[in-house]
Design a protein that fits this description.
The chain has 177 residues and is mainly α. Helices cover 72% and strands 3% of the residues. It is built from five helices and two strands. Strands 1-2 form a two-stranded antiparallel sheet. Helix 1 runs antiparallel to helix 2, helix 2 packs across helix 3 and helix 3 runs antiparallel to helix 4. It is elongated.
């Protein structure tokens, strides 16, 4: 059987984004738990989160553009409806990633330290605007976490139940037996 895999750039960007988003989601919720009781941990996680967001933003833009530049993958869904639903869900994932990244920068009330090396100034100096984008960021993170959970569940369903090798296509030829 000839296997069609996603190209290396798509696979690399997918897994880098996946690792950073999962880390940032877990760290973000941990920060809310420790904000009052462990300010040192909160600060450390906050610096890492903002620094990773700074690195991941251009990679997100590259990934979004690359989606339209690469050759399209052949459909593995049994129906056109499933394919359209998957396409819609991926578009929503991109939209939520954009909202979370943008609102994360716009909610900052002060500069932040990029991995403890360089200070990056905040973009907006209005407390009301920062507070609004904090709410947008928080809501966006919750919806993104739900969509990521749905995405992982769908990938596992296709891999374990349907058996259409969708997961292998994103892992690449190293998984071929």
């Amino acid at each position: 059987m000839t296997e069609k895999y996603y190209d290396r750039v798509s696979r690399a960007l997918h897994w880098v984004m996946a690792i950073v988003i999962i880390y940032a989601t877990v760290a973000g919720y941990v920060m809310h738990i420790v904000i009052d009781s462990k300010p040192d941990i909160f600060y450390y996680l906050s610096v890492i989160n903002m620094s990773m967001a700074t690195v991941i933003t251009p990679l997100f833009l590259l990934r979004w553009f690359w989606r339209y530049l690469r050759d399209p993958m052949p459909m593995v869904s049994n129906t056109t409806g499933q394919y359209k639903l998957a396409s819609l869900m991926h578009s929503l994932l991109y939209l939520l990633m954009f909202i979370v990244l943008l609102s994360g920068f716009l909610m900052l009330k002060s500069s932040y330290s990029f991995f403890g090396v360089y200070q990056i100034p905040n973009v907006v100096n209005s407390s009301e605007v920062n507070d609004f984008f904090f709410l947008v960021h928080r809501a966006g993170c919750m919806v993104l976490a739900a969509l990521i959970t749905l995405h992982i569940t769908a990938a596992l369903h296709h891999h374990l139940v349907v058996g259409n090798r969708t997961l292998y296509r994103m892992l690449g030829p190293i998984t071929q037996k």
